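#lab-general

N.A. 3:47 PM
ok so I finally got the sequence cleaned up, no stray characters, all 247 residues accounted for. can someone with queue access submit it? mine expired

B.Y. 3:52 PM
send it over

N.A. 3:53 PM
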Amino acid sequence: MIAPAENWAKFANRSGPLAGVPVSLKDLVSVKGWDSSMGYSALVGKPMATDGALVRLLRDAGAVPYVKTNSPMTMLSLESTNDVFGSTENPHKKGFSAGGSSSGEVALLALGGARLGVGTDVAGSVRAPAHYSGVYAIKSSMYRFLKQGSASSMPGQEGIPATHSPMARTLDDLETFWRAVFQMKPWNYDYSVIFFFFEFKEYHLANFNRYLEFRGERSNFLRIAPSGGVCYGMMVRGVSICTPTPA
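B.Y. 4:20 PM
back already:
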């Protein structure tokens, strides 16, 4: 994908929120003209007919999807070995696991080959490898991140849906990625994405005691639960703030 990506970069949207940013993709993400084999030898040489919703949004945002990364066959594993591409090892310690199933993503990020990436998670597939390799990831809630058009090793499994989730080298990059995706209104690309904008409010520890003084009051963004724990909200719908949880 690198050569076509270099050509795409020449004509990328330079006013988009991800203008010129290279983004790596887990193998299952659909890119027109390229396989999404997920490590299955039977799927080699069967390129995807269209770009998935995520790739279309990224390109409209000015990003440059430029590489697809390895995953274990079926993707339902904390290791990363398949008969198509072989094994992905820990980027810090040869012979050790990079975790899974978004193993290729974390290895590339940790080694500086990518700044932003997209993995998937149903039972730890971005969280575990991020921990193994020392990068940042967040498992998106169901229907918060685009996934339509991607390949799947378990089509029809909707009881606990896998979610596409952003990954990055730094926490700031992770937040930037989230902001950019929601600035593009992802529900216009993927009907399954819930219509919620992204909003982030930062609370410094220096101000924490000041918040504790207002136990009897409710803030739009932060309040104290009956248990004494701090609650905060990160999603907005229109101009209303979602009720933070736990209540």
